[in-house]
Amino acid sequence: MILTVTLNTALDITYRVPSLRPGGSHRVSEVTERPGGKGVNVARVLAALGHEVTVTGFTGGTTGRILRDRLTEVPGLVDALVPISGTTRRTVAVVDERSGGTTQLNEPGPTVSHAEWSAFQEVYEDLLASVTAVALCGSLPPGVPVGAYAGLVRTARAAGVPVLLDTSGAALRRGVAGRPDVIKPNADELAELTGFHEPLRATQDARRRGARAVVASLGAEGLLAVTPEGRWRAAPPARLRGNPTGAGDSAVAGLLSALTDHRPWPDRLTRAVALSTATVVSPTAGEFDHDTYEELLAKVTVTREANAA
Amino acid sequence: MILTVTLNTALDITYRVPSLRPGGSHRVSEVTERPGGKGVNVARVLAALGHEVTVTGFTGGTTGRILRDRLTEVPGLVDALVPISGTTRRTVAVVDERSGGTTQLNEPGPTVSHAEWSAFQEVYEDLLASVTAVALCGSLPPGVPVGAYAGLVRTARAAGVPVLLDTSGAALRRGVAGRPDVIKPNADELAELTGFHEPLRATQDARRRGARAVVASLGAEGLLAVTPEGRWRAAPPARLRGNPTGAGDSAVAGLLSALTDHRPWPDRLTRAVALSTATVVSPTAGEFDHDTYEELLAKVTVTREANAA
After folding, report:
1. Which residues have a Cβ under 8 Å from the Cβ of B292 and sit 6 or more positions away?
2. What is the CATH number for A135?
3. How distant is the alpha carbon of residue B193 from its chain centre?
4. Number of domains within chain A
5. Structural domain containing residue B72
6. Which stretches of chain A sit within 8 Å of chain B by CB?
7. pLDDT tens-digit profile of B5-32?
8. Is there a domain that residue B75 lies in?
């Protein structure tokens, strides 16, 4: 069983409009709605790969109820979300059918009380007893202390569970100090964390800050992994066009999937690149195409680099 | 008791963002949510004026549940909405704090089944037995026949209940044929109905098409009313700046309020102009300011015109 944590879950709504004009009135031609928040997205991909996965974090109010209803429809996924008195936030993605661009509107999310945060920490510790890996994903909602992830990382390490942290900004900077097994920043997040824009230098600096392994996602160039076992670059066979929404979450799922299957770093990176590329080329934002994923597994190139630095 | 009909109810969500950039990602700084659809808005204004008012129409799903929960909070308002299996639509208004402009995103709404439409017609006929006036407001949801309003107008007339129709496009064109007591088109709706852009000519033509009285709302210029009892223009004391959202619904509420109180046309028009102006200048979109309304009642000018044409 894999555990994913989403402290700031969301109900993700997508609107398609012929063309978005600021100040105009638009009839939405298509509405889709699904459970969201990074850890929920990671769990959905893991479940689709055949893993058993538990989701925890916070949920509340009417949107929380819709989110939980929809999670019951995902086979292999266990809902261990902790109820709160606030209402789960919505995100609205407005897809402009003419330009293909997406305009994102994110509600701030409910404030989590001290008692709710304590209740979550107990649930989390109990869940760790029966999982093979845990991913801590996304932003922190108001009310949760900025150092929250460092504490959750330490609890996982104390329980002997490998822990991956995928967040940004202050939550990442503070969380890294807890010494997570893996972090998976993108180039911007890595630069914000370390102050370095050159990926290799930034990745090495991130390890010095506490991360055991750093898997940097460099967009179309693939992944750069700097780990205690060595340094690798992994890339898709060709630059593929598509929608990058959810590609990072799919990469996290790939890393966790292979980690849980006791596979070495090159296999973990192969799954991560194949899944994120299969997500980019999928016509549905955030979903991956199974056949494309299977095909890509044989085509991803993983190159070991000398650990000169 | 006044009855308002909203066949296409909505949960109206308002997002405030610092500045809306197509293709960008925005953190929403403020979220507000309230029951909507034109007839619901009219009912809210009538209830605030102290009238007893019943709302009917369709509602369903989670958004429908939220809408009904919120209606219970309005004193003087009776919920007689008919449940459907579909889910009530949302509308999202994105207010750009820098420009003050509003970008509107309207979900299409659920499809109403034949059985649900029949159930509504029975409820509607029963409700007519105990009301002094009825307003039929807004667009028709998918599944409801385009001639729906003509039928509802005839049922009201057969029950001896004065009926106001406030809609647009084909629903208005077909509805007018049922001979409503009043229609309240704006300049665009009137031009679309009649093909004439000159308000007086268009208003007179709309009467020939079946409306007993036409109250045309001409924006900042106020109202032009052509009725069997005479022709009037009603205008606010000055051009007032603000948000026109809901001004038309407030005008409908003003007309119904004075009609129910057995007041003549000049008083009906005064209330309509005072309410819609108090809505425009209110800081909250769609709400009216009570003190401003009371003040404006004495300042609206109503001018009788010779019925030369």
Report:
1. B277, B278, B281, B282
2. 3.40.1190.20
3. 17
4. 1
5. 1-20+27-135
6. 15, 17, 20-29, 31, 62, 65-66, 92, 94, 96, 99, 101-108
7. 999 999 999 999 999 999 999 999 999 9
8. yes
